[in-house]
Amino acid sequence: MSILIISDIHANLAAFQAVLEDAAGQWDTIWCLGDLVGYGPNPNECVNLLKEHDHISLSGNHDWAVLDRLDIHSFNDDAQYAVKWTQSVLTDETRTYLETLPTALIKPPFTLTHASPRQPVWEYILDSYTAAINFEYFDTPYCLVGHTHVPVIFNQENKQVVPYRPQEHDKAQLDDTRCIINPGSVGQPRDADPRASYALLDTDKMTWEYRRVAYPIAETQSQMRESGMPIKLINRLEHGW
Ligand code: ZN
To answer: Ligand 1 centroid to 134 CA: how many Å?
Structure first.
């Protein structure tokens, strides 16, 4: 089976559509690792588009924030604005859907979680040290995470954790090496490449193919301007940070 792995769409419909078009006909189902909403201008549209496809999805910290499941004062001012704006436009249908999402799932041989196995909603796995600790918190060979918006594979080799930054179209073979994998972000990449980031997981060949696709960033930005979103959130999209 081929699985489209996406994370951190962040209500960016143009980016999500570009990913679906780029990967069209190449996958059987979608695994979404959370943060469907927050930051971007199209929360309802993104959720509706995801629901059109066979999929499973997790809930992320931004999804929790719009559901009032966490104190948004832990967010910076720009992110707080985005949460409040999202709450103001969220339909009952979208809210009901978001309320059903878990923060972690086990789909052997994969554990799926938004942030980290240790703290499914909050912890950022940005370095080998944090990754090393987290290998103790899941039992499957592999763990898929989002949250940092940075694509990476942390391989656990002889008790050392070695980060691997995949290049576009790299196909990693999943073997005896345990790993924590992040597909990057669809709607707000933060690795200095503004293109939408995603991956294709082939569970027969056990390969992880890393992908990037350009999307009309200006389209998303102009909608954000109309929504009164903070300029920093608008500008960051074209820089990929
Ligand atoms: Zn996110």
So the answer is: 19
- Provide Rg for the chain, Cα atoms: 17
For 138, which DSSP code?
-
Whole-prediction pTM: 0.97
Distance of CA 60 to the CA centre of its chain: 9
CATH class in words for 2-104+161-170+183-239: alpha beta
| Cα 158 to middle of ligand 1, angstroms | 31
Between the CA of 2 and the centroid of ligand 1 the distance, in Å, is: 24
> Encoding tokens for residue 235?
């500008």
**Residue found under tokens 């910290």:** 61
Gap from CA of 61 to ligand 1 centroid (Å): 7
Strands 142-144, 178-182: pairing kind: parallel
How confident is the model over 141-190, as pLDDT tens digits? 999 999 999 999 999 998 899 999 999 999 999 999 999 999 999 999 99
- In whole angstroms, what is the distance from residue 164 CA to residue 94 CA? 36
For 170, list phi and psi in degrees, rounded to 5.
-60, 140
Q: Mark 15-29 as b/e (b = at least 16 C-beta within 10 Å).
A: bbbbbbebbeeebee
Helix (H) or strand (E) holding 199: strand 196-202
